[in-house]
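Note to self: user wants both folds in one dump. Writing first protein now.
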Amino acid sequence: MSSPPPLITCTPGVRSGKPCVAGTRITVSDVLEYLASGMSQDEILSDFPDLSPEHIQAVRDFGIERSKGLSGC
């Protein structure tokens, strides 16, 4: 059984290789900043129709793992 494709990717040449939501140019750091500024998940999803609730959760998980030094690109 194969694992699902990653929701967060780092692609050289796309946003300088920063972690992005897969298939978009939306960086993890941008989404985390929106959340930190008080935007709700629904507001972010409304502003960025390419995102899904699963993407927002993946961004949150990535941020937590990175703060613990467990992930990175």
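First done. Writing the second protein, which came from a different request thread.
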Amino acid sequence: MALMEARASCGSGRDLVATQNAIKPVRAAQRVAGVRYAVRDVVVQAERLRKGGMRMLYLNIGDPNQFGFKPPEHLISAVEGAMRSNRNGYAPSEGIPEALQAIEADANARGISNICHTWVGNGCSEVIDMALTALCDPGENILVPSPGYPLYTALAAKLGIEARPYQLDEANGWQPDVADMAAHCDANTRAVVVINPNNPTGSLASAAALRSVMRVAVERDLVVFADEIYDRLLFDGCKHTPLGSIDPNASVLTLGGLSKNWLAPGFRIGWGVVSGDAQRLQPWLEAVRQLGRARLSANHPEQYGIAPCLQGSQEHLTQMLVELTARRDLAMQRLNAIPGISCVVPSGAFYAFARLHTVDNDAQWCSDLMQETGVVVVPGSGFGQRPGTQHFRIVLLPSCEILAEACDAIAAFAQRRAPAGRAS
């Protein structure tokens, strides 16, 4: 009887604790407070509108598969073959040998020498996360392009490091403002990020600008994060200069992957190639290897598609660029014809970054555009932009019909919102 009473008493105590816990919120870690990702944050409002019956025109996420583009057949065949051969267990933590050899051979062919380390990650996002985690301590900083891909600022917030923006010059085709970059360096600066071609502007940095960037990096002993995930998606016969090819002794992490050039973002396969002085880089690279071992491996069967992609036919790119060029040209003609809006013509990737000349709050403008028209774009403030300017990003992947419809809706909305008496 006494035992039963004791058990009942214990049970009541557990119920009381459970009740107290139920009314006390579970505290979130402070490191997440500054994490923002504008590209997907806008989807929350879009989904609410879609569920309410509104027809949405999504121009916000750079996922080519959502717009009818497909990976090349030799990529699909290689991955299917690996799965059928039961390559479904863990891979080596750095990646399978066939993939690493193909990645390094491709880097060598593009002029990148002095390769110290190569590894495959679950998308470029993981490679970047691992590299920053291994490199930077709280209180240190990295230089990021403004405008630039918001993953870097989100990861910096998570890691407790500062992401210092350096400006891209809109009046000069969004080329890096190297003087602004140098002015933001201090003793705690560890790395500089260069996204080329750039997301969100679609700009392609010139070889001269890249050489200037490398001078700043070498003089200040910075690691260069060369984000070149779109390096084969170039318009008008433009040529890409890999940053790692400029100075073989500079510390460069070149980033690539299957997501954009080979149209398989859902495979989550990216890679990093580190070049430079192996002895100087050794402590950082050992930390990267340690993180790699802790997470076991990247996706395994998908890695068997890397070598066929790098070594095989690139015919899919030829056709894709024909279609993207038509879509870019249509969007540029339509957007630049709208009073109060201008847009630098992209040279690569599949984005455009349009300027709003008579708007004071791009986030509110984009939200209202979505609410009234169903057109989903991303405010420029989500990517960074020169103070006092307002922009929005669109993707150029939808069909010409969808882009034309979206641009017509933007034009009508902009006309309704045009401030009386203000010049365009």
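Dump finished. Worth passing along: Residues 2-23 form the longest helix (22 residues).
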